[in-house]
């Protein structure tokens, strides 16, 4: 479980995250949505301990991140597809992460197989496609079989097969009782897999409700999309008129 309580973050004069509160529960897929610049990535970096909060508290499975003696079994992160040494193979990349987490190298093979990279385990990641890098990031998050996972835009760069694979993976992990917090712009996947949806805009929480309640609030042939657009209409930094004049 992830609990974010009254969290704010300032970068100089800019208030990037403003009094954000929400929870992501075990056995569920909680999506964090919002326009570019809404503060989603900053929130995720604060959960990961990469950015300090200016105020408020964050707990994971009832404890602060620094209180864990075995963090890798509590929470896993995939926050950027390019946080890799391009000269390392996929196997080497996971090996040093496993060692840092106190795991053995025997934990690496099953994870590479689960994300579909077992056949390219000895290929340098500098030769990976964007979609393969996304799979490697998810493999990193899965090391240690953590109770909680935080994934930032995991579907970016995936082809159709990859999106279907990711969908089944997320649903399977939730069915195992894991807590998943996922930032996304893919409303189709949110509608298929989501349990709860938190929508941010300009650093604030604009909506925090179940996926089903959000869909019910929408209208037309794409109700989730219509509800999202209505909620975020005053928070879009780069608005355009599309094909109209």
From TrEMBL:
Keywords: ATP-binding, Nucleotide-binding, Transport. Pfam families: ABC_tran. The keyword Ribosomal protein does not apply. InterPro entries: AAA+_ATPase (IPR003593), ABC_transporter-like_ATP-bd (IPR003439), ABC_transporter-like_CS (IPR017871), P-loop_NTPase (IPR027417). The keyword Nucleotide-binding applies. SUPFAM superfamilies: P-loop containing nucleoside triphosphate hydrolases (SSF52540). One of its GO terms (molecular function) is ATP binding. Gene3D superfamilies: P-loop containing nucleotide triphosphate hydrolases. It comes from the Bacteria. Residues 2-227 form the ABC transporter domain. Belongs to the ABC transporter superfamily. This is ATP-binding cassette domain-containing protein. It comes from Nocardia fusca.
């Amino acid at each position: 479980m992830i609990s974010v309580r009254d969290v704010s973050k300032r970068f100089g004069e800019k208030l990037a995250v403003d009094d954000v509160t929400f929870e992501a529960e075990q056995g569920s897929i909680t999506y964090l949505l919002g326009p570019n610049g809404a503060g989603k990535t900053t929130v995720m970096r604060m959960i990961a301990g990469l950015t300090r909060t200016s105020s408020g508290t964050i707990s994971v499975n009832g404890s602060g991140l620094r209180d864990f003696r075995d963090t890798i079994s509590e929470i896993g992160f995939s926050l950027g597809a390019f946080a890799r040494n391009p000269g390392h193979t996929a196997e080497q990349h996971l090996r040093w992460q496993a060692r840092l987490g106190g795991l053995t190298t025997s934990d690496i093979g099953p994870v590479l197989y689960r994300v579909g990279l077992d056949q390219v385990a000895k290929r340098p990641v500098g030769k990976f496609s964007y979609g393969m890098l996304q799979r490697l990031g998810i493999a990193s998050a899965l090391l240690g079989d953590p109770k909680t996972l935080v994934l930032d835009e995991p579907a970016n760069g995936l082809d159709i097969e990859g999106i279907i694979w990711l969908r089944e993976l997320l649903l399977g992990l939730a069915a195992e009782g894991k807590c998943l917090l996922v930032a996304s712009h893919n409303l189709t996947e949110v509608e298929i897999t989501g349990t709860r949806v938190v929508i941010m805009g300009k650093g604030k929480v604009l909506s925090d409700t179940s996926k089903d309640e959000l869909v019910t609030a929408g209208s037309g042939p794409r109700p989730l999309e219509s509800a999202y657009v209505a909620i975020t209409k005053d928070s879009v930094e780069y608005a355009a008129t599309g094909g109209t004049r």
